[in-house]
Structure formats: structure tokens, C-alpha cells
Amino acid sequence: MKVKINTNAITKALAKCFSVTPARTPKDVLKYVRLAATEGCVSVHATDTEVSLTIDITPDDCYPVECPSPGTVLLPVKVHQICRELTGEYVEIIDGDGNITILGDGNRWEIQTVDIADFPEAQSCDEGALTVDGGKLLSSIQWVSQAVDKKQIEVRFSFGGVLFEFSDNRLTLAGCDRNRMSVSSINDTSGGIELPSRECVVPYKSLKSIEGICEGQVTVSRSGSAIQFSSPCGKVWARFLGGRFAQWQQIVDVPDVYSFSITVGPLSKSLRQAAIVLNEDSSGCQFSFKDDNLTISGSGSDVGTSEVSIPVVINRGGEFTVNLDPRFLSEQLRTIDAASTIEWIAGSADAAQLIKSESDVCAVMPLVRD
């Protein structure tokens, strides 16, 4: 195999694929990525057997591909390190007898590889599909992934993933931990998935790879045990997580006794300011709505106190006070434009507080203040 390709294009593809390869595995071959080169396309593929990523580099005016000798080879991470240090426009990759030759910047490297026969075949799903806008899918993933229980990521259980629920012309995503539930819906999808179960839990570790291919239209298909996301620039395959996901409809069904409209930018800033005095012994912050203002108060033993106020619009209800961990709100607001407005909905200070932004919602459980 011999291929000459744009250095920037192959470096980006290798970076994405090596983010999927496992750091520790009894199968050393999984630490490699597979490069398949033809005159029409260079495809880079990586897998840890639970999540797979394929990045396609097709010839165009920006990234021409020259492949006088098509073929397939396994690349170790050293090849990515070499490509990352190159400054020239093109790099050549040549497969020899157990070695890979890298030519770039007038220099030459010989890197050992392993037998490609031991590398697992690429998995795929082709049972039913729907199409969704890549930008909307990206926004939804970023919203719900904030609430995923990061301590459960390495455990194959539902709290370590994101729920994908399919219904007529709608795709709903949900993520949760023990303190909050984030939900996002995409209403204008096309196609449909006709299977006995219309929901599945996708592992958190696959989300970054999915975000990386959210360009143009993304096709989502699934089988009985896996889901696949395909776009013009690549494909992600992921095996479902086990366990039963929480009933998100019940959790985000918050009575709107109180409703407040707040601009995201000032709220994010006030959360950071109020949290400066907090320490490990602090019981979150107190949020008090009164006279078209929100006052956030915090305290930390051996540190001090804080009191930060911003204007709000009171839509329903009167004075209202609740205790929350400001980190949960801050993390959620990172995914929203600072100029946009959220609606804060509550039934009482002892129940979940609902943060709503267009078709996205996040339910945050209150804290008991000492």
C-alpha cells in the first residue's frame, strides 16, 4: 500500500480515532487504527469492541489523495505523533514487510506494525434509520451529557450513558445522575426505526466521537444491541449499555407554580461569583427570588460569605427561596448562548427545579441547607 495525503487531514483523522483506542487491553491489536486507502477514499478506523469510529477522507480541492497502490495497514500511535510534528502539506504512508514508512518534510521514519488479520472487522447497523440535522444533534448531546454520572462511565450501566428514545418524527435524548436530569428533543427528523424497543442507552465515551461527525445530515440506525451514527465525514458504532433508564417524563414534569425568566450570561457570572466562598463543607447556595431580583447567597466555614444579585422577570408566583448546588447550574449553562434566556420553573422548594431552554430542560434536585 502507498498513499500520499494532506498532512492536516490525516492528522485530524488519526487524533479522533486514537481517542477511541483503549489504553489498557489484553488485545494489543486494538491499540492500533486501521488505514484503508484507495484512489477514491482514505478510511481510518478504530475500535475498543464497544465503540467504533470510522473517519473517511475523500479527495477534493482541499484534501487531494494520491493512491498508486491501494491497500490496508495498521498504524500505531507513533504514526500520529509523527504526523502531528510535520509542517509540510503532504505526507506519504507506505506499507512494507512488517514496517510502515513515513515520508514528510524531506525526512523518513520506519515504524513497526502488526498483522492486520488479528484486527476485528468493522461493525455496522442497518435495521431502520432516521435522519437528523447534525447541528441539532450536536447541541442536544452537549446539553444532556452534562448530567451523565461521570463516576459510572467505566461501568456498563445506564447512568454512565445517554438515553436515545425514538418516536414518530422525534428523537429525545436524556442524561442523569443522582442530582439532575437533562432532556433534549429534536422534533424535525425523517424516517423511522421500527423495532420492538424504541429506546436505548448509548455509552458516554462514544459521545465525543459522535460530536466529531455531526456535520450535515446524520443518519441514525440501530440493531438489537447497537446503534450507529453516519454522516458524510464518518461513522460511529456503539454497543448499548445495560440497565433500565429513569422515567424522564415523570422527573421533568414540574408544576409551574413559580416561573422566572433569566438571561444566561448574567446568571452564569453570578453563579461563579457566589461560589467563590464555597468549600467542601458548604451546603450549596441559597437562591432567593424577590422584587424582580434573584439573590444568590453562599458561605464557607473559615472563608466567608457572598451575596450576588441580578435582575429577573417574575412570570408567575411571588417570593421564592430554594437551596441548590451552583455547579449543576453552571455546567448546564455552558452549553447555552450567553444572550439567550432560560425559564426557571418550580412547584416548591422541596421538589425538582426545572431549567428550560427552548426544547431542552434540566431538572435539578434541591439541597437541604444546614
UniProtKB/TrEMBL annotation:
Record keyword Nucleotidyltransferase present: yes
GO cellular component: cytoplasm; DNA polymerase III complex
SUPFAM superfamilies cross-referenced by the UniProt entry: DNA clamp (SSF55979)
Record key words, sorted: Cytoplasm, DNA replication, DNA-binding, DNA-directed DNA polymerase, Nucleotidyltransferase, Transferase
Subcellular localization: Cytoplasm
GO biological process: DNA strand elongation involved in DNA replication
Domain DNA polymerase III beta sliding clamp N-terminal: 1-121
InterPro entries linked to this entry: DNA_clamp_sf, DNA_polIII_beta, DNA_polIII_beta_N
Region forming the signal peptide: none
TM segment ranges: none
One Pfam family cited in the UniProt record for this chain: DNA_pol3_beta
GO molecular function, one term: 3'-5' exonuclease activity
Gene3D superfamilies (alphabetical): 3.70.10.10, DNA Polymerase III, subunit A, domain 2 (3.10.150.10)
Similarity-based family: Belongs to the beta sliding clamp family.
The protein's name: Beta sliding clamp
